[in-house]
Write a structure and sequence with these properties.
This protein is an alpha+beta fold. It folds into two domains: 105 residues, Orthogonal Bundle (Arc Repressor Mutant, subunit A); 85 residues. The protein contains ten helices and eight strands. The strands form three sheets. A three-stranded antiparallel β-sheet has the order 1-3-2. A hairpin with a 4-residue loop joins strand 6 and strand 7. Helix 1 packs across helix 4 and helix 7 packs across helix 9. The termini are far apart.
Length: 218
């Protein structure tokens, strides 16, 4: 029998499911107003429901496959005791989502897939031609916005959505050209087991090798 989770623990799993990406712990606190205490975080990790990593004294959480399966168990479930009005609203929405998805051809994977910052139901956006020089400026600016310490690593998965609506081939060419600069490094993730599908999709091929991380020395 699966170990019981508190409503807060279940809520964190649901947030990570909705985000469909790695989330800084500070985002849970500041944006979602959810405080995940260390014992609960360790519990979720011990159960294999989340993965965590620490970089520059900041913790990041991501839903694991087992956590995804655990989330799906909550769709159509009864409202937990002491969940409050917010919990009742959440489970009402989950039930409605389950009804819709079960009656449609949309899978839960597709419904909760990463959107890369583009609303799935929003109007179609057309890529606008950008000069190589302008695209390089966008890449450097996006890197500066994302990097946590000077010269640190930034994933291309995080960087690409910040470049605007630009065709993939142009971005790849700009990254390849930028990689020739002395202060720029674009490398593969050393721990391939850490890669999610979104990381693989965002990779750029340089020298017949997929590369996932960029660093620009100040």
């Amino acid at each position: 029998m699966a170990e019981d989770l508190t409503f807060t623990e279940k809520s964190v799993l649901m947030i990570l499911m909705a985000e469909a990406r790695e989330v800084p712990n500070v985002t849970l606190t500041n944006q979602y107003r959810v405080k995940l205490a260390a014992p609960s975080r360790d519990k979720l990790k011990r159960l294999g429901l989340i993965s965590t990593r620490v970089e520059s004294r900041r913790m990041y959480l991501e839903l694991a496959d087992a956590g995804w399966k655990r989330c799906l168990e909550e769709f159509g479930a009864q409202v937990p005791e002491r969940a409050g009005a917010g919990g009742a609203a959440l489970y009402a929405v989950l039930g409605r989502i389950k009804t819709f998805l079960d009656a449609s051809n949309v899978s839960y994977d597709d419904f909760f897939a990463p959107t890369d910052g583009i609303e799935p139901d929003g109007p179609a956006q057309v890529a606008v031609p950008v000069t190589p020089a302008e695209l390089e400026i966008r890449i450097r600016n996006a890197y500066t916005e994302l990097v946590r310490r000077p010269g640190g690593w930034v994933s291309l998965r995080e960087l690409r959505p910040r470049l605007g609506v630009v065709d993939r081939a142009s971005v790849d060419r700009a990254l390849i050209e930028l990689s020739r600069a002395a202060e720029v490094k674009i490398v593969p993730e050393s721990n391939q087991k850490m890669l999610k599908q979104a990381d693989r999709d965002a990779a750029v091929s340089i020298g017949n090798q997929d590369r996932h991380l960029i660093a620009i020395q100040p």
